[in-house]
Amino acid sequence: MRLATLLGPDLKALLEDPAALREAFEDFHAEDVAELLDDLPEEQVVELLDALPIDIGADVLERLSADRQRIVLRRTERPTELLTEMDPDDRADILDELEEPEAQALLEQLEPEIIEETQELLGYENDTAGGIMTTEYARLEPELGAGAAIEELRRLAREGEAETIYHIYVVGYGKLVGVVSLRELILADTETPIAEIMTEKVVSVSPADDQEEVARIIARYDLTAVPVVNDHGEMLGVVTIDDVVDVVIDEATEDAQKMGGVVPLEESYFDTGIVEFVWKRGAWLVVLFLGQLLTATVIEKNQDALAATMELALFIPLIIASGGNAGSQSATLIIRAMAVGEAKPKDWLRVFGRELLVGLALGLALGCMGFGRAWFAGESVSAFGLAFAVGSSILAIVTLSTVIGSLLPMLIRRLGLDPAVSSTPFIASVVDVLGLIVYFTVAQLILHSVF
Amino acid sequence: MRLATLLGPDLKALLEDPAALREAFEDFHAEDVAELLDDLPEEQVVELLDALPIDIGADVLERLSADRQRIVLRRTERPTELLTEMDPDDRADILDELEEPEAQALLEQLEPEIIEETQELLGYENDTAGGIMTTEYARLEPELGAGAAIEELRRLAREGEAETIYHIYVVGYGKLVGVVSLRELILADTETPIAEIMTEKVVSVSPADDQEEVARIIARYDLTAVPVVNDHGEMLGVVTIDDVVDVVIDEATEDAQKMGGVVPLEESYFDTGIVEFVWKRGAWLVVLFLGQLLTATVIEKNQDALAATMELALFIPLIIASGGNAGSQSATLIIRAMAVGEAKPKDWLRVFGRELLVGLALGLALGCMGFGRAWFAGESVSAFGLAFAVGSSILAIVTLSTVIGSLLPMLIRRLGLDPAVSSTPFIASVVDVLGLIVYFTVAQLILHSVF
Fold first, then answer.
1. Is A349 in the B-facing interface, judged by CB distances under 8 Å?
2. Are B201 and A27 an interchain contact pair (Cβ–Cβ within 8 Å)?
3. What is the pTM of this model?
């Protein structure tokens, strides 16, 4: 049975029969149900969520779009039950989407223990380890025997008090002292204390660590979860790998948008309103446009040279585009290398050496091609002179752009800023202006001297 | 004790004392050891790997760079043991890095069972579900009771026959019929047969599915592993989430490089040779350069107009850059939206509508700015005429670029090609040529008519 068929004319009948409803929805993943619900009219979504068993309802609610979440929490008959049923990190996320007073009012209806837990999570920035961690994890004491530990895990799992029971954190006097896997526990002798089985070297993160850094650590060490520990060695929560996959995908999208000169979107492409869209793109376009105005000034200053040798105008786009493309390549490579930790600002000299060589090689290749094309354009000046001017300008600007394209992002990073922000169009703009200056300087030197 | 200190003068002593060596390395993660070994001289790497206990050695070997892996496999005293100890997917990967005859020779020394398993994995493309799956997973029969199942898992874990025992695949008559988690098993009554506990709706992938698609499914359904099933419903292996995190990071790097106009690098930034680097960047630069040559031709054809109104030359870079930037933004947004599954080629009409509106709004804003700047440049023609020509050209080209930038990647995708390939510079080149044509057409219409 396809999920969509459930929601046709039979929906009314289904809503009146809880058992049939549970059966109908149990077989589908909450993600699929949520996607379908995102397309239904608002009233039906609320009605349906209220009719669903509470566990399925909470699972679906956490996966709805932010808009729908707000509507459901405002109109549902059982906001408290739904919030209580959710995982702590998802509960904090959904409350974070609401207006402050509204979230506060809902929060106050929960149990004191849950309020405290949620407020703690709300205290962390969204994109930090603290912001994506869960506080429902399995923690045990080091003296416990393996057999008793499994019994305790059974209890935690039954009562839904741990998101995962496959990694158990060993906490003594409030501090994280080790980690043990369920695999190791079931392999061990039932009497062996956990302290003897656990791994003492635990890779952990701080609550303020950026989520990208957390993702990098999880990827590097092939972990499936990483504990979040504060400066005093106290354990605060766990970041699980499924949340990290989302982080990695979101960060890649954000980086791509930044590199493409767009202020990152909060929502998906189609969910972003036209006005927000214009604003997020317009901001950078205007900044870049203002920078590009310099190109007009450079040409204005060289108008006499241009009037004397009209053919120079022909190669303006070609020359600045060659520089722009070479610079974008370097910027892309180095920004990505820094993002995955392959290169650091301190490697700048090594990068400089490589890029200089690469830039010269590429500049030489393109310069020769430019020479060939310009050879056929010279009418008011010697064909060789024009060709030589165009060719050597290309060599110079491609080399320069390659070096600038790689070093500028490292400098920006070194200054503590994000190098991905609008890097490609920004570097292209810098290179456009520089390219024109180089072009006119080189051309006049050559055309006004020997030829 | 820091890891690096181990490898100073004490290394010789350490190599002669296996117990001390195991103890020294046991506390460090294989990833850290591998990183250190990547910087040591070749001889020492081989010597050290031969001295390490086989399980640690195999763990470290699979994490070395491809170069080092080849060297170790050629010179180690125990290639067969190391390969046998590795996880099947890692074993296939490392053999894939060797020359065909060399890999074949090594493969033949393994046990028949392992040879078969490895050859099966080698048969899949590297970047497909089959290429990243492991064949060591826990599979049980549906009739088994929960208690007996845990016993069987204990045996699998002890003998290292399953990479993970947290998800157990239930296979009846060779076909995948359900999945059960270790969590559910330990919660169940020991006598309950697995068939009664398992989930029958299993999300699975085909062996030929692209690894990016696998990552998308795992992220969407918050899975930690996904079974690989062929057309006949037979289970072939499992892709685990830790491999998927690597896939997502690698794909993001690859996409960024493609979008920046670089043929994706196989190795990291610093590990890529200069010649390969020049080649991978030069290929696209030359193609783009050839396209850009058209700009010279367009200007050549309009040389008379330019000679009549020299001020037109001033705004050539500004106009084509505005189009290029707007086009890159659209391309970036839509390519990323397609990559994460938010937009599909069939949505083109909806995208067209949005981008047309956005393009007009952005074009109007930039056009007004351009109008203002050009107002002050008109000397040989009326200031208003020039300003109007520049402003309306910008409006036209920004709108056009915005629409082209979003639709072209969808068309490329529709044709079955990868839209990320060189998209930004490619679209910028197309837009440069179009921009010039629009500019000269609009400018001549306006300047030669009313003003």
1. no
2. yes
3. 0.73
